Amino acid sequence: MAGGIVSRPLVRERRILSIVAVVLAGMALAPFLWLLQMSFKTNAQIFTFPPPLIFAPTFENYASLWKTGFRQSYVNSLVVSAAATVLPMLIGVPAAYALSRWQARAVSTVSLWILASRMAPPIAFTIPYFLAYRHLELIDTWSGLVLIYLTFNLSLAIWMMRPFFDQLPRSLEEAAWIDGATMGQAFLRIVLPLSAPGLAATAILCFLFAWNDFFFALILTRTEAMTAPVAVVNFMNYEGWEWGRIAAGGTMVMLPVLVFSLLVRKYLVHGLTGGAVKG
Asked: Which one of 1.10.3720.10, 1.20.1260.10, 3.40.630.30, 3.40.50.300 gives the CATH number of domain 62-274?
């Protein structure tokens, strides 16, 4: 009896927490769900008040969207974001490992300068980048966007991966060296597999920053290398805002990030928190 009396408050608290969690999740997902259902409506249904919750869905917005230049812009975003994720990881992960194992007083100073590259607002780099890109003929090119995203994502990759390497025991690498492994083999076969959560979280953030960028893509592209976020804005014109296409384009822009996050979801939480604790 006493046990049942004690457990009732706990059950009540768990129910309250579950209700609060459901409400917060609903509030977080509400904008996405609203955008998703709006992408399957006609313009007449979108402007109907009160908005109908039950309606006959249509794929007209997606079909018309794919017939425009948005298709090429979507491919541009995929290519540029993938390259802006792979290159910083290839360069930044070994650099973070080198900083982690570097025994010198200047390590903290170097790490701070690496992080400082992300502290300045992007607009501060706009004019220098534009003038340099115009001189080098990199405006409206994939390589131009990849280069600028590389400069920002590289510091992110180094800063995020260094704590993961710091918490790994060096005795594991030393044991591999004793067994005849080289430093590179120990890094590839021991250090990297143990840092998988950090690699997944860092890759997601690099992809996310490149994929969602609007400012640099707007300034440094015209037509050939225009990305999806910029292409969606083109549906807002003087003749009127094409809300159906805007909703469909917004849904398509969110889709790759959602799929990518779901594929590595088991590493994501561990990756965002694992490097915060040493030992």
From this structure: 1.10.3720.10
